[in-house]
Structure to design on (1039 residues):
């Protein structure tokens, strides 16, 4: 695992801002959003990594920025990798991984649905859980939940 | 008194026909009530349940209550439906069933219409059923109904052929197209089922009968997990009741027909003939239900392949055997 | 052809299973007439425990259960204060209750429990609202007695208070 | 309409004949197992294209969880995968435990595993029953639910509820097992082993059933991995990805069991994986009951629980696959973000691939074999 991380650091250098070995077979990487897709592709294709299983992808809102979380697993080495990055709230854009991993397709759609993060290069980026005519992105921290007349369309009081 | 009544009807044959028609039609309407109750009880017991219990003793009146409810329900016709066909389809199904009951001998002399080509007649009128299903499926203007209707037609027509061929084996064997004569032949010579070619014919008939009355391995037309309810999805109230009644009356008829063809009709010791007919019919209905509640259903292409690749050739060969062995 | 024979054979084996089950005892419980026994841990309708010895409800109105509730089911009005406190109102809106048991676990006084009653459906819209008289063990009478007891204890405490102001006095109780 | 290249070429030759019938399956349909809607394009009985539409059950649970203290969120997870509520409870509790560094007593770990395996049996029985009904074997439904009732009775006796158990807490379980519970479980295990044989005789061996499931909806291994499917769907495609083995939690590293893996990748293999998992669950239950130590079942925690800031995830092998909770904490009593990686959500995303070219009648078999629960997909 260490060797693999070293090679990754050599390859991407500055782009990986931080890494920690959480467990024997788990690494947590913090990367810059600019080479999000490149790193994912490297992790998938490099024989030392072979992270062929997209386990999870999600976004969270800290109030100042959006964090992006990607978790991969390798069926060959049984390694886990958590890749973290953060993107700006004003212009939330990040490269889509849907063409690399078809499994994150729906995750990315859901995150677009809930946070309005634009996954660039996604083949079918539209709302998935909410109705197509929903206004706003409800999981953002500043989303105001106001009662509206129509219970099916439009914001609802949370709680 | 009875003699006077008989004489009266002999003088007015038209009236007598009318009485027979009314009796038959109401019999066809009553039989489903019993068959459905048995079905529900058998299904319940097989599935570790109790089945209907509350209306009447052991729930015997449950189906009557259900029928009354259906008759009182609002008659809904979908907007886009082809109204004329939608209206008459259930009645065609029902009439075809009543017509086939017409030539069925329940006991010596107990037959509404003594016909020397009864078997041919039955095969002919049972095809009306296919027409009604197609009409219902098409006119409902519902995609599920349409799929169900098309499946039903493909299936019923495919299975009609081996069924007719296996019935023909009996006809050649006994040398008659009249059901009464077939039964009388069996009373004299023993049941048809004990003769090898007829045994195979009976097996094929049994399988085809399952398909004809849409029972489980072949219940595709109304596969409720896929097509909601198949061709009768859009029907409700009385029209649905007629479809339902004709289906279960058909169930009764097809077993009674089998009893006449293979199991000697009313033939049997001690008990009166009519009891024997009903006994045989209900045993067979039970077996049908038993089969129905056991296996999963086949897929439409598997069903058709089964009919055309196996049943048709086998029944053809079997027919040749029956001719070779049976014709006098 | 082998398919066909295999099909018939396996169908027959399957029918043996259904035949066996035809004669097994049935599992149906004829619900409105018969009822299943409810295990002791069953989480049904709440009750407030009545303490026969002290002639009061165990509840002291500390609102720990209300704080533990994820959906704000519980609201109460405290009666009295200190060790002699109880509740005069205790309302649960079971329309939003998840029967999650968190309030029962939160209670340090063994005051609130979930009982075996599960038939809570009603044709009235306000039937979700359970007041203290519906919840307390012993119903209205218990509530009345509870209030009486608390008021009596409060009065006793009031009486005892001047005594407590004496320099030698401490917490007598 | 995205169609694969090979399809496109065959389509262009017949496009004069038909443009496909669009049929809407669901959201109210007997075999979509909830409020799933599928927009199918049909050519006769053949499915050309399928588009799943989800979200009819969306309640915003993740957002609701952000507004509540950590431990208040446990009952909400019951409403995710309502057929395996205990797995969800365990998932969120493990996540909070990792976030806050909470230790769980030994006995609680064993109790958790015991409940988890009972839950797995209950959930797989629902699969078995509904799968049988989907294919027309209605009786199987009743038999499976009859036996599920036995499991539910056991779980009811232990937890006090029949469906929304909420019986896992941060730092253990709320209460010890009731008296005589082990004997009752063992009696159930004995009965259930026989019933499993009966199921095999009734359904697994049935020729019709096999011809309805074999070589239907084949999911190749690489596709299954790339789509991130998990649980029986992935194991039926030949990947031994079982969290209980890959990343053992609680005491799964101390019990002996096999992970059934099949290479066929079809509906039949998915069915067999689940049937075999029930056998393995029985094995685990017996071992757990044998090895269970005495001791406390819950760690005392402060009334206001504030885990340190950070990110943690937990993963649990729920009956449907990898159930993962991811939580972000900033040190306050409420989480900043709770994300639920629902196995059904990911497994369902592979459905359009499986359905392309299948028959309408196979739709229910394929959908049933994925065994989705909409409460978890829509969250």
């Amino acid at each position: 695992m260490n060797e693999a991380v070293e090679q990754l650091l050599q390859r991407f250098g500055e782009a990986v801002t931080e890494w920690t070995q959480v467990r024997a077979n788990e690494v947590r990487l913090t990367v810059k959003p600019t080479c999000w897709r490149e790193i994912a592709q490297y992790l998938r294709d490099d024989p030392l990594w072979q992270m062929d299983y997209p386990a999870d992808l999600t976004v969270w809102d800290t109030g100042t920025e959006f964090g992006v979380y990607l978790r991969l697993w390798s069926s060959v080495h049984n390694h886990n990798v958590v890749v973290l990055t953060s993107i700006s709230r004003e212009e939330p854009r990040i490269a889509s991984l849907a063409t690399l991993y078809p499994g994150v397709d729906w995750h990315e759609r859901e995150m677009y649905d809930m946070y309005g993060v634009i996954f660039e290069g996604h083949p079918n980026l539209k709302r998935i859980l909410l109705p197509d005519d929903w206004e706003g992105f409800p999981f953002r921290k500043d989303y105001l939940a106001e009662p509206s007349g129509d219970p099916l369309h439009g914001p609802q009081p949370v709680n | 008194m009875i003699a006077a009544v008989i004489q009266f009807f002999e003088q007015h044959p038209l009236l007598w026909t009318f009485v027979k028609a009314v009796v038959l039609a109401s019999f066809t309407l009553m039989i489903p009530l019993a068959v459905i109750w048995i079905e529900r009880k058998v299904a319940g017991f097989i599935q570790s349940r109790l089945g209907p219990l509350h209306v009447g003793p052991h729930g015997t009146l449950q189906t009557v209550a259900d029928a009354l409810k259906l008759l009182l329900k609002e008659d809904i016709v979908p907007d886009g439906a082809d109204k004329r066909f939608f209206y008459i389809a259930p009645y065609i199904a029902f009439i075809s069933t009543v017509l086939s009951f017409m030539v069925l001998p329940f006991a010596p002399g107990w037959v509404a219409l003594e016909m020397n080509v009864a078997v041919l007649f039955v095969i002919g009128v049972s095809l009306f059923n296919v027409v009604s299903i197609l009409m219902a499926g098409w006119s409902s203007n519902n995609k599920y109904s349409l799929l169900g209707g098309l499946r039903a037609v493909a299936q019923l027509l495919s299975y009609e052929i081996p069924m007719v061929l296996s019935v023909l084996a009996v006809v050649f064997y006994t040398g008659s197209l009249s059901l009464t004569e077939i039964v009388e032949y069996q009373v004299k010579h023993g049941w048809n089922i004990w003769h090898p070619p007829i045994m195979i014919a009976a097996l094929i008939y049994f399988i085809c009968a399952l398909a004809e009355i849409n029972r489980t391995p072949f219940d595709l037309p109304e596969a409720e997990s896929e097509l909601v309810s198949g061709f009768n999805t859009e029907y409700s109230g009385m029209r649905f009741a007629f479809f339902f009644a004709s289906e279960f009356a058909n169930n009764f008829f097809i077993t009674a027909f089998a009893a006449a063809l293979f199991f000697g009709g009313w033939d049997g010791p001690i008990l009166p003939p009519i009891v024997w007919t009903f006994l045989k019919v209900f045993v067979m209905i039970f077996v049908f239900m038993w089969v129905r509640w056991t296996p999963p259903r086949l897929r439409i292409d598997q069903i058709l392949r089964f009919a055309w690749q196996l049943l048709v050739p086998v029944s053809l060969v079997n027919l040749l055997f029956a001719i070779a062995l049976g014709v006098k | 052809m082998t398919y066909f024979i295999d099909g018939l054979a396996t169908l027959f084996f399957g029918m043996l299973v259904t035949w066996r089950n035809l004669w097994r005892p049935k599992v149906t419980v004829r619900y409105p007439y018969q009822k299943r026994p409810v295990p002791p841990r069953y989480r049904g309708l709440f009750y407030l425990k009545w303490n026969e010895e002290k002639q009061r409800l165990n509840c002291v109105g500390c609102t720990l259960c209300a704080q533990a509730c994820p959906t704000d089911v519980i609201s109460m009005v405290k009666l009295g204060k200190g060790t002699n406190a109880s509740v005069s109102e205790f309302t649960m809106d079971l329309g939003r209750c998840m029967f999650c048991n968190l309030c029962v676990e939160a209670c340090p006084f063994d005051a609130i429990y979930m009982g075996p009653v599960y038939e809570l459906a009603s044709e009235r819209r306000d039937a979700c609202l359970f007041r203290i008289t519906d919840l307390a063990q012993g119903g209205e009478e218990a509530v009345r007695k509870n209030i009486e007891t608390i008021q009596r204890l409060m009065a006793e405490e009031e009486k005892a208070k001047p005594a407590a102001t004496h320099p030698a006095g401490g917490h007598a109780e | 309409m995205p169609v694969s290249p090979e399809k496109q070429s065959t389509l262009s030759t017949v496009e004069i004949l038909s443009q496909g019938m669009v049929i809407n399956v669901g959201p109210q349909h007997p075999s979509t197992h909830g409020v799933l809607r599928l927009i199918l394009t049909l050519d006769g009985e053949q499915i050309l294209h399928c588009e799943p539409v989800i979200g009819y059950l969306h309640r915003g649970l993740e957002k609701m969880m952000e507004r509540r203290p950590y431990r208040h969120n446990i009952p909400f997870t019951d409403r995710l995968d309502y057929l395996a509520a205990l797995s969800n409870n365990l998932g969120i509790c493990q996540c909070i435990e990792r976030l806050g560094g909470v230790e769980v007593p030994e006995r609680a770990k064993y109790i958790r595993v015991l409940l988890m395996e009972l839950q797995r049996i209950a959930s797989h029985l629902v699969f078995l029953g509904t799968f049988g009904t989907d294919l027309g074997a209605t009786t199987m439904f009743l038999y499976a639910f009859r036996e599920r009732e036995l499991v539910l009775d056991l779980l009811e006796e232990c937890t006090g509820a029949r469906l929304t158990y909420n019986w896992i807490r941060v730092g253990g379980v709320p209460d010890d097992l009731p008296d005589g519970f082990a004997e009752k479980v063992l009696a159930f295990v004995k009965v259930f082993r026989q019933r499993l044989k009966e199921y095999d005789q009734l359904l697994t061996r049935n020729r019709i059933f096999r011809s309805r499931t074999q070589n239907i909806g084949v999911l190749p291994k690489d596709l299954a991995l790339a789509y991130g499917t998990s649980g029986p769907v992935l194991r039926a495609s030949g990947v031994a990805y079982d969290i209980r083995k890959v990343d053992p939690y609680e005491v799964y590293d101390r019990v002996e069991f096999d992970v059934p893996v099949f290479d066929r990748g079809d509906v039949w293999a998915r069915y067999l994986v689940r049937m075999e998992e029930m056998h393995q669950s029985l094995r685990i239950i017996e071992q757990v009951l044998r090895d269970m130590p005495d001791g406390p079942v819950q760690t005392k925690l402060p009334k206001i629980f504030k885990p340190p800031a950070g990110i943690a995830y937990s993963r649990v092998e729920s009956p449907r696959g990898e159930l993962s909770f991811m939580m972000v904490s900033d040190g306050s009593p409420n989480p900043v973000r709770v994300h639920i990686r629902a196995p059904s959500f990911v497994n369902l995303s592979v459905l359009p691939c499986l359905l392309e070219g299948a028959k309408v009648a196979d739709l229910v078999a394929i959908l049933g074999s994925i065994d989705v629960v909409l409460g978890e997909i829509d969250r």
Remarks:
- Chains B and A do not touch (no CB pair under 8 Å).
